[in-house]
Amino acid sequence: MRLSNSKTEKENTNLANELDKERIPEHIAIIMDGNGRWAIKKGLPRSFGHNKGVSVLKEIIKISKKIHCKVLTVYAFSTENWSRPEKEVDFLINLFEKVLKKEISKLHQESIRINFIGDLSPFPESLKLIINNSENLTKENKNFILNVCLNYGGRQEILKATKKIAIKSSSGKIKPSDIDEKLFNSELLTNGIKDPELLIRTSGEKRISNFLLWQLAYSEIYITDVLWPDFTEVEFLKAIKDYQSRNRRFGGIESLSNESFKDSYFSSLSKND
Ligand code: IPE
Ligand code: IPE
Ligand code: MG
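Above: inputs. Below: predicted complex with IPE.
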């Protein structure tokens, strides 16, 4: 046991040392998926997977801070998750409240700002109250931002923004020609938060399940078969290492930030022309 722990620690340190400190994503979004399957595989009720999922999230927040990532946005409950059995939905709502009550002072001590993104109106008053208190308590914290997407859906977010813009336009506050990406962005629930550079999805599903549809336009996507309750520091660092190997072209061509590439690119152009 001891041996395997120290082996894991060594693996973590090695991986962490291999990371390019200049290219740590500032904002990482995570679809924390696979809690139910993890529990079922162990012959346990799905709720055990959700409980274990919370401790994994705590660990990932810790590591994110350690490597100087600035923002983590996690998908905790989608607009479609209401279609689950009532018992599971109730369990999740209680879990959110219980965890928030237990963890909020620690998050605050660590100078973490917590934001909730989504339509909170259907949740019980007790949960809404603790959410409100947590956001207020931590709003000046500068060290790290944790965005928790609760009753969140990308399509609903886009529709809401569109309605707000339509109202402003029909009342003459803005002209249709004023509507651009910047204005649209400012009406989204994520207003003020820069787009994630990296999206991680656990449990092997190759879809985004209505998560951050607008914001993920150019995010790098990393999918692992590991179920969220089994997700570890090593897995997280592997995702970041993989991200660092990507060439982010944004529709352009090979990155021109690399000086030697720039030189060879332009000299080859002049030779051919
Ligand atoms: C993700 O795990 C947590 C939530 C959606 C709340 P799941 O509950 O979706 O677990 P699987 O995908 O069924 O295994
Ligand atoms: C996405 O997972 C939502 C969360 C992780 C909160 P789901 O389990 O709901 O997604 P699908 O149903 O597999 O697409
Ligand atoms: Mg799932």
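The radius of gyration is 21 Å.
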